[in-house]
Amino acid sequence: MKLFRAALLATALALPLGSVAAIAATPADALVVAQNIDDIVALDPAQAYEFTSGEINTNVYDRLVGYEAEDTTVLAPGLATEWVADDAAKTITFTLRDAKFASGNPVRPEDVVFSFTRVIKLNLTPAFILTQLGWTPENIADMVTIDGNKVIVKYEGDFSSAFVLNVLASRPASIVDEALVMANETAGDMGNAWLNTHSAGSGPFVMTDFRPAEIVRLTANENYFRGAPAMKQILIRHVAEAATQQLLLSSGDVDIAKNLTPDQIAGLSADTIKVETYPQAAVHFLSFNQKDEDLTPPAVWEAARYLVDYDGMTQSFLKGQMEKHQAFWPKGFPGSYDETPFSLDVEKAKKILADAGIKTPINVTLDVINAAPFTDMAQSLQATFAEAGINFEILPGTGAQVITKYRERTHQAMLLYWGPDFMDPHSNAKAFAYNSDNSDATYTATTTWRNAWAVPDALNKEVTAALAEPDQAKRNELYIDIQKQTQASSPIVIMFQAALTIAMANNVEGYVNGATSDFVYYRLVTK
Asked: What is the DSSP string of 20-87?
């Protein structure tokens, strides 16, 4: 086994290792990560849409603004030192800092224009995040312009500059080195093929090696405007088997293991290894289709909130995978509402139903993805709801089958999850608290429409107002109020927020793992 570990680490590091005994610990200036990275399809920020791709992009590219490692809840300057928003004119003017790309080329306003333009013109998977600003291939030259060392961004739509800033903090808004990218253009692809195996950013690291389903090597960028990171290399090694990750971490051949099971984590030695749990963006919910008359009384919605065994599930089969969360915007994001007022109380649920004159039993089909932990969650719900006379018939199906049924509004009850496309509360407020047209003919990709919930007009108006509110603090207050309302009365019962448990060597400090893969930061790591 010692020889296997030596070969594995030598392949990963390509560093002088000396004797076999020298691998008892990883190099002091390198962080070695064991992780399943076979999800990577693309690494060009104009195309990248996978979890691991987001992690790599965050560490090799900068954006004009962003949520940084020091505090992932505060929008901070990036390549822009400051910005001035004019909500009336629908413009934001950014002043660029004096920064360099890893290549040594200066970061110019022209690079910002080029970066945004190529996303719009290539029109690959994540382009929709920027096109919602009203940008098209035909008008982009007028929507993003230059004035000296300033970039002026224009947008169209009934939303505030605060929303636009969050859009510009997202992955496809990463700034790339135009000179380097276009030097590697092939057949008019604006460097797309090359950027899927290389990087051209100004971030804290440079991607110096990428072998699909094998390794990603990040090397410290000595030109980084915040200063070069302490770790000279980040080596993310593809290790698909969780058991192998556990072995490599326990033997000291890797510093971090990201895909361990709860049982494996429980078996780690606390003397050399620590375990951290990080809330993730996906929220898991139970919802009731309002096309079914038995499920329309608000008393049914209220009773349901007291028939979920939140603690029982998170302390058993969901331990390390989910935590109790009862509002639609995830914990760890600005504007989140983190109060959890509901707990399992069958007698209270029975009283709510009885006081409202609801006749039981109520027989309901519950669609669920036929995989753990969803089937386990469904069985728990089936047991506790039955105690109050709400009988679930579990209908397992593939993910495609369940989601197709959901989109067609042909379910009765549904157990699913939802995650934001980018870090702005409107991404989820629109999904959970807005539905201005409940007709069957108007398909809308929201959970309100899919559950046929005609959202009250006042709530629709508040969601619209929050989107247009220019002051971020006031926006957050509005979103918190919207969450309180939907938490109290809605046919959608938010139960959990996904969690990620990561094990690492005790000497690793400064690793930051926010609520999405775009919030994974290595630049503050020390050992």
From this structure: GGGGGS--TTEEEEEE--TT----STTT--SHHHHHHHHHH---SEEE-TT-TTSEEESSEEEEEEET
Half-sphere exposure of 52 (CA within 13 A, CB side): 23
- Residues 396-424: pLDDT tens digits? 999 889 989 999 999 999 999 998 888 89
The answer to whether the beta carbons of residues 362 and 294 sit under 8 Å apart is: yes
What secondary structure, in 3-state letters, does 335-400 show?
A: CCCCCCCCCCCHHHHHHHHHHCCCCCCEEEEEEEECCCCHHHHHHHHHHHHHCCCEEEEEEEECHH
Q: Which CATH number is 434's domain given?
A: 3.10.105.10
471 and 331 within one domain = yes
Give yes or no for residue 1 having a pLDDT over 80: no
Whole-number average pLDDT of the chain: 93
| Res. 318: pLDDT tops 60 | yes
CATH of the domain at 64: 3.40.190.10
On the question of pLDDT at 9 being above 70, the answer is no
What is the domain extent for residue 301? 279-500
- Cβ neighbours of residue 16 under 8 Å, at least 6 residues apart? none
What are residue 285's DSSP bridge partners?
A: 416, 494
- Residue by residue, DSSP assigns 478-501 as HHHHHHHHHHHS-SEEEEEEEEEE
User: pLDDT value at position 24?
Assistant: 54
Q: What is the pLDDT of residues 164-209, one digit of tens each?
A: 999 999 999 999 999 999 999 999 999 999 999 999 999 999 999 9
* Peptide bond just before 204 cis, omega within 30 deg: no
- Cα–Cα distance measured from residue 105 to residue 110, given in angstroms and rounded to the nearest whole number: 12
- H runs (alpha helix) in 102-191: 109-122, 128-131, 140-143, 161-168, 178-182
Neighbours of 18 (CB within 10 A): 8
Coil/strand/helix, residue 458: helix
Domains identified in the chain, total number: 2
